[in-house]
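Lab notebook, bench 4. The sequencing result for the construct came back, and we need a structural model before the next group meeting so we can plan mutations. Quick request posted to the team channel:

Model the 3D structure of this chain.
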Amino acid sequence: MIRRHLLTSLLMWLLHTAQAQPEAIVQEGDFGITFGAAHYFGDLNSRGSLNRPKPVVGVHFRKNFGNYIGLRLAGRYGQLGYSDRYSDIEFNRRRNLSFNTNLFELALQGDFHFFQFVPGSDDHFFTPYITFGVGLFNFDPYAYLNGEKHYLRPLGTEGQGTSLFPERDFYDKMSLCFPLGMGIKYNIRNNVNLTLELSHRFTRTDYLDDVSTTFAGPLAFPANADGTPSTAFLLQDRSYETGPPIGSPLRQRGFSAQRDQYIFLEVGLSFSFTSYRCPQ
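Done. Here's the predicted structure in token form:
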């Protein structure tokens, strides 16, 4: 009788331990890489055209808080750019401005799964999710003139740093962004996951494209010592390449009431890591 009781107790303990093992594996988080396309929206692309994407790559580390919530620290490098020549607005085509910029972003994002997500599980291997957060990014717009690259901020293309517009300061090359997006996550095998994410960035700057307020006018950009037009003069109003110049003083050059924005469409590969918690 005693032997049978001990054997029954041992079997019950083994069954409890076997059932507790999956609960003892804790999904701590993941790290991974992403790559995809970036696109800009602003004064040179006011109608939200999606015809000039540029590359973006990123890395991230995510800490999980259960199977539904995660906190992600992500760093990304991307490129943005656009040109008035792509516009279907007559004024924009006449304005004829363009820009490119490298963009470095560091963002903290909260991720919220709609379904329980457990890598390695046969039942919880897929979920859509939403993400939002806050980030800091660096940019420095430039343009080409006669094949030569020129950074636009130091030129003060809207009269920054001139005596005619003392109230116009040079804009910062660093600004806040607020990511908001959604995606899907799929567990390929064991701890390897595949993601697809589309996220929009609202920013606190209107100078991603170096365009925001009004034209400063020709007098704000004195000629060079040899009498030739300065680089700033040639890049602040390029309508002379499409017809008569349109950049008279205080004529609208951009729309300062609306900040610039950008989006990322990214495919990602991540690797989950786990820990073992001794069952109670």
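Strands lie at 25-41, 54-65, 69-83, 98-113, 126-139, 142-145, 148-151, 174-189, 192-203, 261-276.
Will bring this to the meeting.
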